[in-house]
Structures are given as C-alpha cells and as structure tokens.
Amino acid sequence: MLVAASALYAFGLWWMTLRPSIYDASVGGILTAVLRVLAAWPPTAWVTFDVVESASNVAMFVPLGLLVLGWGGRWWHGILIALLLSIAIETTQLAFLPTRVADARDVVANTLGAGLGVVALVLLRRLLPGSQDSHNPRHRKLIDTRAQ
C-alpha cells in the first residue's frame, strides 16, 4: 500500500510541477471566472490567484511529509526532503521550462506543506492508542523516563 501511495504521489507531483503548462485554457478560464466571483464578494475578496496557488503548493506537499514518516523517516527528514525536492523542482522549472515560473515562495509553501503533514501524523500517532509510536522502543524509553 505504501509503495502504491508513494508511486501515485510521485507521478502526481511530477504531473503538477514539471509539465510545460500546469493547466489548459479551459481550466484557466474556470479558475479566472471563480476568482472573479470571489473578488466581487467582500468576505471572499482576499482569495486571489496568489492565495490559491500558495494554498495549492502547501496542500500538494502535505502527503510527502506523511509518506516520509510512513517509510520510517524521522520528522525532520520529511521537512528536509521537501526543501531539497522543492529547490530541485524550481531549479528545473527555471532552467528547462520557460513556460513555468520558478518562485522561491513555492519552496517555502512546499516545505510548509510537508511540515504540516509531518506534524499531523506525529500528533495522530500520539493520540491513537496502539499506534506505531507507542510500540517504538525509542518512544517507549522516552515515555518510561518521563514517568520516573
């Protein structure tokens, strides 16, 4: 299951970040129309293309944080891998994809997304009885020493 999820995520990440164009004209038209409607209503006027793009970048990397922990990595591995992968993606876009815009803000948003995925899974594992963390000797030792 983890192998399939990782492969699907890797393909989706490639599809979204390393194609010459992220979406076609029809999708762009729909997005523009939705953003116009949101801009016309004061409570949602703050939802701009930049906000949608940043939120999408954050959301796109949440699974990476989950997957890295799922494979047994430490919490900081997920964040470091996201940072390095994001830099590689943005560098590739800059060097080889003239129709794409490389942006340092994407690196920040992507890394934040992976960090949120890591935090979500760490918290979930701590809250659920019988989770992997409760069986991990490293965590048992930490818990046992706190009780003394």
Tag the structure with descriptive keywords.
mainly alpha; 0% strand; 148 residues
Describe the structure.
By secondary structure, the protein is mostly helical. The chain is 78% helix and 0% strand. The chain contains seven helices and no strands. The termini are far apart.
How many β-strand stretches?
0
What is the molecular shape? globular
* Biggest pleated sheet: none
The percentage of residues in β strands lies in under 5%
Helix content: over 70%
Order of helices and strands: HHHHHHH
Tally of structural domains:
1
Estimate the mean pLDDT confidence.
90
**Oligomer state of the chains in this structure:** single chain
- Note the total helix count: 7
Break the fold down into its secondary structure elements and pairings:
Elements: H1 2-17, H2 25-40, H3 49-70, H4 75-96, H5 104-127, H6 132-135, H7 137-147
